[in-house]
Amino acid sequence: MSQPDMNAILAQAQQMQAQLEAAQAEIVASSVVGEAGNGLVKVTMLGSGEVTDVQIDPKVVDPEDVDGLQDLILGAFGDATKKVQDLAQEKMGPLQEGFGGLGGDFGF
Fold first, then answer.
1. Could you tell me where this protein is found in the cell (predicted)?
2. Distance CA 89, CA 8 (A)
């Protein structure tokens, strides 16, 4: 059994690192919209977690039901957060598996 070519392994690791960094940059630059109440409340969130917009349909603004509006806002935030996590898994998952395939644990 021959020794693995360390230069080839290092080159592969560097290439995967570059792909990982590109995927991270793409995630941070991406935007998702979380919704609640069939779109009555929408939250736009960047992949970094920064909220850039909140839209509330006037139909759900009822001074007698502030709790309901708060629940819708929380639901929209939760939906946006899940979409960011799903996007990260979609972009990073294959790359993380690739790092594990090198025979080491890279802490991802």
1. Cytoplasm, Nucleoid
2. 27
Q: How far is CA 6 from CA 2, 66, 102, 105, in A?
A: 12, 63, 12, 17
Which pair of tokens denotes residue 56? 């509330």
Q: Write out the DSSP string of 36-102.
A: ETTTTEEEEEETTS-EEEEEE-GGG--TT-HHHHHHHHHHHHHHHHHHHHHHHHHHHHHHHHHHHTT
Global model pTM greater than 0.85 = no
Tell me if 45 sits within 8 A of 31, measured CB to CB. yes
**pLDDT one-digit tens code per residue, 4-61:** 788 888 888 888 888 888 888 889 889 999 999 999 999 999 999 999 999 999 999 9
